[in-house]
Amino acid sequence: MPCPADEADDQYAVAAGHYAQQRWKFAAEEFETFLEKHPQDPRVAESIFFLGEALVQLGRHADGQTRFQEYLRRWPTGSHARLALFRAAEAAYLAGKTAEAKPLLRQFMEKYPNDELNAYALPYLGEVALAENDDAAAERYFRRGLDQFPDGRLQDECRFGLARVLEQRNQNAEAERLYLALATKPNSRLADDAQFRLGAVQYALGKYAEAAKSFAALESKWGDHPKIGPVRMGHGWALLRLDRPKEAAAKFEQASADPRLAIEARYWQGIAEKAQKDWSAAAKTLLAAAAADPNGPLVTAIRFHAGDAFLHAGDYPSARRQFEAVLQATSSEEEWVANSLYGLCQAALRERDFEAIDRRSAEFARRFPKHPLAGEVRRLLARSLIERKEYQRAADVLGDPSALTGRGDAAAESQYLLALAYEGLKRYDEALTALKPALESADASLKRDALATQASVLMAVKRFAEAVGPLEAFLAASPSPEAALKARASLAVCHARARQLNKAKSLYDELLKQRAEGEWMAATTEQLAEAAYEAGDTKWSEDLFGRLAKDEAAGKQLRGLAGLGWSQFKAGRLDEAAATFGQVLARNPPPQLAAETALVRGQIFERLQKSDDALAMYELVIGHHPTDKEMPHALLAAARLRHRQKKYEQAAAFLERLIREFPKFPELDAAIYDWAWVLADQGKTEESSKAFERLRREFPQSSFRLDATFRLAQRAFAEKQYSRARELASEVARGNAGPEVRENAMFLLGQIAAGEGKWQEAFEAFIAVVKQFPSGTLRLLAEYGAAEAAFRRGDGEAALARFQKLAADLNNRDKTLAAVALLRQAQVLAQQENWDEAFRLASQLDSFPGFEEQYEADYILGRCLARRAEFEKARERYRRVIASPGGRKTLTAANAQLMIAETYFHQKNYESAVREYLKAEILYAFPAVQAAALLQAGKCHEALGEWKQAAECYARLIDRYRDTVFAKEAAERIAVAKQKAEATARQ
Prior knowledge:
Radius of gyration: 43 Å
Oligomer: single chain
CATH architecture of the domain at 590-698: Alpha Horseshoe
CATH class of the domain at 590-698: Mainly Alpha
Number of helices: 53
Distance between the termini: 40 Å
Structural class: mainly alpha
């Protein structure tokens, strides 16, 4: 029967064994059992200490602290007293019991001022001080930690803590430097948090571009960061500051995935969409945010901005609902209320809801008489009163001094509105005086409106000669087409009244050519007729009065006018014909004649290159004569005009109506072909393809069929539907299409084969293009395609010969192809290990600035230099590959990183080599490269006698890249590395 001493020994041995193997749970349980059963054993002190360590390792910091303090209480001078004091302090800190940790940490530092464990105690105390808002103490601890332990395990924590202290003190420049150092430090535990804070301080410093880059780097490298939501918010704010609202909106939308930030993120997304003038999207986003948190702190701001977005979008009822919601909310801040009232006034003016603008403007004046928007509200009210012809009331409103407040040109705008009121009141001299500030304004639109009003007032007081200058200045200011026509009419009247009839006739003729019409034109004709009569030009006055009489008496002469129009058209006198047909249409002819006249008049305008006038004619047929035979022709012509004007929706609408309503139209195939292209220009690729397919299927004899088939082949190729693309392109190539379409189809067959990696087939296709179209537009590209296909299929000799010939044929005609030809020659020569010639050709690519594949040339140059043992120059070329925009994450870049490591390996600089090998494994996602890098890194560790690290590299290779060719060698080397690592550990 075993004695108690034996039982205690066994119990202790089991506990200690588990402890030694770091099986902390079992160790803790066995030490607790030992202490319970053998409280008088001489090993109790050690057991309590080891139990504390095991508990801390299990994350039971509070329990560990209790054990360490028990040890100190019972054995204050024991062999583990120093470490127990530190562990008690550390465990309290890790348990979040900072009030207990703080005095224990200070006690340890006072008792052991030079102990290396202070490398931990100092940053712990710094963090406690930071939590207590004691910036001075925190800075002191962190700086002492860095000074005393510059290479300590928690040096990064000290730098990070110090940076946070400096940031809290608004010493952002120094904080930025510290955060940047941590963020770029390889393998730092705090790199991600430092990157986040770096972006924040850069934003605080106004370095918005740098902040955006910092946040973007964090997202790219640490996409699962716990603060990824705030990161995206910060990124979005920086992008907004950089006037990149579209990108900012995308960031805020991503940030909204964090439930804690969802409302704020949606709010800022809406602001960013407003900055893009995407009013509908902004309103939708903001409404969703308001609905998600109807009583939240941001809801007032959200609703105001939603209303403002609706206002800009022209949805005035929705805008009003949002503004009124702000007014009704008891928690709304005064500024949002003021802005919402202003918004309600704007909506009321645009809806001509005069009662509402009276009420809301009065409310604004009562609640916010000194607000910066007070003047804007008064001007809105004044505009509505002028529209209502309540000129005296408008003048009274504008006489208030607050109407002069607001933006820089507020006073000038108020005076302009006052001039309109005075004009309505027939107080013309006062109107002219009030116009002066607007006439001198830097606001081009305001100045243009003021010129028109000045001319109107001068004409009202019969000062016609003085009105000429303002009218000419108005026309020079690019008014709308209708306003320009009216201004020219007024100018004609002024010249006529000033007895300058030649100028008046010229302007009037111009008005007629532009088909001016309406009451104002009749009034102009009447005034000009009267002026001509008064001036004694009876011939012109008779013509003008006669024109008026004819306008009123449409009927008997209609047939004669129509015949005259056709005669003039046949003779080629297109302007006269157009004018004559205009008279016919002005007399309200029968539907059939009206449709025929409008269609031919549209065709005349097209020949005169007056697209807008032509379109007006076609739309006249479409709108008023939907059953006439001219209708489909008008639809087709109008669609083509709209297409040329890039108004794709209108063009599509015309064509869809034509195709739907006139299935027997002789030119239906042309209409479908046009429709397919309009859909393509709208970005509706799938619908466009369906239209081309319909043309191909329903109109086998159409002249458009093969071209439509080719377009379908191109799209199938773009979507990587290679089988379908080959079938369609082959059909075109075999058909009777014109040479250009056939050449393109045959070339596309080469591209399809290349896309599938069928390089022999691609080679043959490209050669066929060259042979059949030796003078074709694609010959050079086909020559290149054939050479590239030979290169890709591994026929180095054939590729080399073709690229050499291509380079000679180019003769500086195409810099890009010339550069590629040089590159491919160099690549083939490198494969053939003709390093000197490869170097010579690849070096020539430096003379092609902007060449997208320069990184491939740099890689070859690096290989050549390495073969010459010019390792530093080789590394310089490899680094250019890695840093290049086009090559930085490609397989070529991964190989370049591997080659950098290889150069160090060849120089037996194993420490540098291993760092570069491990970079290749970390930075690139190409298993073969990563496996090769780990294998070579292991060999470097072997050369350095670092057997444990070597074994770790081989183990990682076997675990992660077991399917590569390098796994077998790693498996062979790992056993030896582990044996030697164990032997080294025992020494």
